[in-house]
Amino acid sequence: MISSRGTVLRAGGRQLTRVLGGSRPLELNIDLHNKVNCVRTKATESSDSALSCAPPSFMPETRTMYPTLEKLGLLSATHIRIQDMARAEELVTTIVGSGFSKLQIIADYDMTLTRSHVNGERAETSFGIMDNSAQMPAFYREEANKLLAKYYPIEIHPKMTEEEKIPYMIEWYEQIHKLIVKCQVSQESLKGMVSSSNARLRDGTEDLFSKLHSTNVPVLVFSAGMGDILEQVLRHFNVYTDNVKVVSNFFKYNEEGVMVGFKGELVHVFNKNENAIHSSNYFNKLKGRNNVILMGDSLGDIKMAMGVPQPSNVLRIGFLNDKVREVLKHCLLLNLMFIVQEERLEAYMNNFDIVLIDDQTMDVAGSIVGLMK
Q: Among the options 48, 110, 131, 207, which is catalytic?
């Protein structure tokens, strides 16, 4: 199911490549370098073991207990983790058996619908497309990097609660939004930014969306990134059809088509359960569609379905894009060892029904939909 391997660090849709790969190389003294290598060796042994271990071998009778998961190939794939087999089997079987008329899809965008890496290089997020565009001025990249270095450690800090982090996230987003306004971005320029980027949908996404469109299944794309850019990406790959709704941060333009601000409520990584979509009639209009396939790549994404009327059957599929050993390596160099706790496999397995490690495809969701009638 997986096509390639790689790693990417992200922060609410923003990539950490700028901090890690700045104009000056990171300088480490010999003592620190030795300590880093010592700690990394011990830590990576543990994380390597966690990532490389295949799922336990299942006896024939165990496979019989989970026939739907077995049919989908989820029991033997080495990059798939399922903590509660019985729950996953029940959810998938219910969703498949109920058919398309009972289904809706809720998905994050950056690193969920899109690949995290392409041909060995980090794929660009909606923020990354703008960050790396030649059409953006140099001062934007410099200031954006400073903000990233300041606020990203707060976003991933394991000792802070979400409530403590939220004011800083709002501050970060407001500052980056003001910075973008200074750049006088034209609406016309976005298409060129996207076409020249390396942003790619996960393999199989076009086929999945085509099937969802032909069967009238509603798709909600919920993103803390740049709505105008991600919409352009969806159009670029011909998946922005009339059954797809996007909730994100959208630009406001003047009469000349120049971006002058943002519309509506701010969407950040920790408020996907509080956005206006949950107080609107969107989910009410979908009453009867109580089966949900939710897809995300961060723990905050599990809240996206909180507006779905109960009772509901929500299958949560989590993409663990960052290899733990590589994340640990980078964060030790940055003296940010605590990121490991945020990204570790155990946390994902405790919150998602199915965890996909470095899977650059939509094979799992596509296979589930493929069984439906």
A: 110
Name the active-site residue from 84, 108, 228, 322: 108
2 inside domain: no
pLDDT tens, position by position, 185-243: 999 999 999 999 999 999 999 999 999 999 999 999 999 999 999 999 999 999 999 99
Query: Could you write out the DSSP letters of every residue in 313-344?
Result: EEEEEEEE-S-HHHHHHHHHHTT-TTHHHHH-
* Structural domain harbouring 27: 10-370
Q: Is 359 a catalytic residue?
A: no
> Is the full-model pTM beyond 0.85?
no
Query: Is residue 3 in a domain?
Result: no
Residue 133 lies in a domain: yes
Residue ranges of the chain with pLDDT lower than 70? 1-63, 156, 158, 275-276, 279, 322-344
| Strand ranges for 155-243 from DSSP E | 219-226
CATH number, domain of 300, equals: 3.40.50.1000
Residue 203 appears among annotated catalytic residues = no
